[in-house]
Design brief:
By secondary structure, the protein is α+β, with helices and mostly antiparallel strands. The chain has two domains: 4-141, Fructose-1,6-Bisphosphatase, subunit A, domain 1 (Fructose-1,6-Bisphosphatase, Chain A, domain 1), CATH 3.30.540.10; 150-263, D-Maltodextrin-Binding Protein, domain 2 (3-Layer(aba) Sandwich). It has eight helices and 14 strands. The strands form three sheets. It has a seven-stranded mixed β-sheet with strand order 3-4-5-6-7-8-9, with helices on both faces. A hairpin with a 4-residue loop joins strand 7 (125-130) and strand 8. Helix 1 packs antiparallel against helix 2 (45-61) and helix 4 (167-180) packs antiparallel against helix 8 (252-263).
Length: 265
C-alpha cells in the first residue's frame, strides 16, 4: 500500500535536490550551452541533468511507476502509475537569468493526478499536495484567495511557443481581461502560475498549447487548495488536452464563461 504523504515528502526532497543543481548551474551558465528543440523551445544540459537526477530518485521511490518526462530521460510509460516531470519549467527564463523557474513533478494514477510538487527555485518555495491531504507551501497550509469576481482578480496566462492557431481570439480574450480585471501577468512558468493561484497570489490562470509536464505538478496542488480546473470546453481533460482554465472556486464559473466566449472550439 502506498503511503502518499510519506511519498510526497520524499518527492519534495527530490525536487529540492534538482533545484539545488539548477541553482548551482545558474551561476555559471552560458547561453552558448543552449540547444533549440523547436521554434522558441529551448533545452540545455541543466534540464537534462536535472531530469536524470529526478528520474533516478523517483524510480527508487516507486519502482512500478512509469515516466512521462519532457526531455525523454525515461522512455517507458506505466500501466497504472506515471510520474509526469518537467525538470525545469521556465527554461527560457532560466537562460536569461529571469525568475521564476520551477521543478514540476506530478504523479498520476490512470491518468488522474494524485500527487503534485512544484519547487520554485529562485524563491526556494516548495508547493506540494497529495490526494485528500490538503496543499502546502514550505510546510504551511495554503488556500486560494477569496476574491469572487473577475473585476477584482489578478490573472496569469502564457503565450505559445509555436502553435499560433488561436492567437487572434487569444489576443481578444487577453484584451478583455486587461480591461476588466486587476491585470494580467505572464511569468513564463505554468507550474508556478498554478502554484500561485493555489496560494492566492493569482485568482485565475489560462493557457493553451501546453504539455502534460507543464501542469501535472500543479493541478492537484490547486485542487487541494480549494481551486477548480477544466479545459476550455469545461471538461476535465486539462492534463493531456493541451489547454487549461484554473481559478479559485468563487471566480471559476465567471472566468470559464469568458474564456469560452473567445477560445472554446
Amino acid at each position: 500500500m502506498i503511503r502518499y504523504e510519506e511519498l510526497c515528502m520524499k518527492t519534495c526532497e527530490v525536487a529540492r535536490q534538482a533545484g539545488a543543481f539548477i541553482r548551482q548551474e545558474a551561476g555559471v551558465f552560458s547561453a552558448q550551452k543552449v540547444e533549440e528543440k523547436g521554434i522558441h523551445n529551448f533545452v540545455s544540459y541543466v534540464d537534462k541533468g536535472a531530469e536524470q537526477l529526478i528520474v533516478e530518485q523517483l524510480h527508487i521511490l516507486l519502482p512500478e511507476a512509469g515516466f512521462i518526462a519532457e526531455e525523454g530521460t525515461a522512455g517507458f510509460r506505466g500501466k497504472r502509475f506515471n510520474w509526469v516531470i518537467d525538470p525545469l519549467d521556465g527554461t527560457t527564463n532560466f537562460i536569461h537569468g529571469l525568475p521564476p523557474y520551477a521543478v514540476s513533478i506530478g504523479l498520476t494514477e490512470n491518468d488522474r493526478s494524485i500527487m503534485g510538487v512544484v519547487y520554485e527555485v529562485t524563491l526556494d518555495e516548495c508547493f506540494y499536495a497529495w490526494q485528500g491531504g490538503g496543499a502546502y507551501l514550505n510546510g504551511k497550509p495554503i488556500r486560494t484567495s477569496d476574491r469572487s469576481a473577475v473585476k477584482d482578480a489578478l490573472i496569469a496566462t502564457g503565450f505559445p511557443y509555436c502553435d499560433y492557431h488561436l492567437m487572434r481570439p487569444y489576443i481578444d480574450c487577453l484584451e478583455y481581461f486587461l480591461r476588466h480585471s486587476h491585470g494580467v501577468r505572464r511569468l513564463g512558468s505554468a507550474a508556478a502560475d498554478l502554484a500561485y493561484v493555489a496560494c492566492g497570489r493569482f485568482e485565475a490562470f489560462y493557457e493553451y498549447a501546453l504539455s502534460p509536464w507543464d501542469v501535472a505538478g500543479g493541478v492537484l496542488i490547486l485542487q487541494e487548495a480549494g481551486g477548480k480546473l477544466s479545459d476550455f470546453s469545461g471538461n476535465d481533460n486539462y492534463i493531456f488536452g493541451k489547454e487549461i482554465v484554473a481559478a479559485n472556486h468563487l471566480v471559476f464559473n465567471e472566468f470559464l464563461t469568458i474564456v469560452q466566449k473567445y477560445l472554446q472550439p
